[in-house]
Design goal:
This protein has helices at 2-16, 24-38, 47-51, 60-91, 105-127, 129-137, 143-149, 157-184, 191-207, 215-227, 234-268. By secondary structure, the protein is mostly helical.
């Protein structure tokens, strides 16, 4: 858990340095605060609400656009690895107990290539943020918005790829967490197969509408529907889903809420 959020904190530190200096500890507190707010919003879209509390007031709107860059990089990695997982299960898995067998062959193929197409578009969008800003600058009605997102024009492709690399390392961490926890819960699936199944699981979770504290039933249902073709240990699958939700979301949210409370107390004093 610490490695997971530590990598995210380093990523946030690199992003926010384009508007002000940020120490790693400050970035870590900012990320945890964001994790507490995001538990109250659908699909974690509100994480910037906690993070910007640690940013100077004059830079907070700019920081929101930086948060979006970080979120897109993580989503992009999830999409890329999810597509690889779908591709593997469809074309390289010889196991007859295939999770994609619930779909007709044509529809499973369409699903794979549609996911790949969306991922390619998202990747091009991510690597052309500066181009997007310059296009918006030409539209008079968007001038008020552009002045707050011009910071995106400062990112080179090398910097964006660096952020993407950190997102990939973080992705490997929380997929490995899930694989290990499934092994602990005696869900007898080969680790290499479990890795690709988890990549599809996180792809589904990235697309499915969820809402903070009520996300657990969606997680449990999605993991069971995906893993039931390979294991009958429904209790172990559910326990692993609960464990990951608690470790990666609930505990950081609790610490983040305490940090937000401490900020409010200091301001009141």
């Amino acid at each position: 858990m610490i490695i997971n959020w530590g990598i995210e904190s380093r990523k946030w530190q690199l992003l926010v340095k384009h508007v002000e200096d940020f120490s790693f500890i400050k970035a870590f507190k900012s990320v945890l605060s964001g994790s507490s707010v995001t538990m109250l919003t659908p699909n974690r879209v509100g994480e910037y609400g906690g993070r910007i509390l640690y940013v100077d007031e004059g830079n907070r709107i700019k920081a929101i656009s930086l948060t979006i860059v970080g979120s897109i990089s993580q989503l992009l990695v999830t999409m890329i690895m999810g597509c690889c997982g779908l591709f593997f299960l469809r074309f390289f898995s010889n196991d007859t107990r295939n999770a994609l067998n619930v779909l007709p062959e044509l529809w499973s193929t369409i699903l794979i290539y549609l996911s790949i197409g969306i991922t390619v578009v998202l990747l091009l969008f991510y690597l052309r943020l500066a181009w997007l800003v310059r296009m918006m600058e030409k539209i008079p009605a968007l001038q008020k918005i552009v002045k707050h997102i011009q910071v995106l024009d400062e990112f080179s492709n090398a910097q964006l790829l660096h952020i993407l690399f950190l997102s990939f390392i973080r992705y490997l961490v929380f997929v490995l967490q899930y694989v290990l926890l499934l092994q602990v819960m005696n869900v007898a699936i080969a680790p290499w197969l479990c890795f690709w199944l988890m990549s599809v699981f996180y792809l589904v979770m990235a697309i499915a509408p969820t809402f903070g504290f009520i996300e657990l039933p969606v997680r449990a249902k999605a993991s069971w529907e995906l893993l039931k073709f390979y294991s009958v240990n429904s209790l172990g699958i559910g326990a692993a889903a609960l464990g990951i939700w608690f470790i990666n979301l609930v505990i950081p949210a609790i610490f983040g809420s305490l940090l937000i409370l401490s900020i409010k107390i200091v301001k009141e004093k």
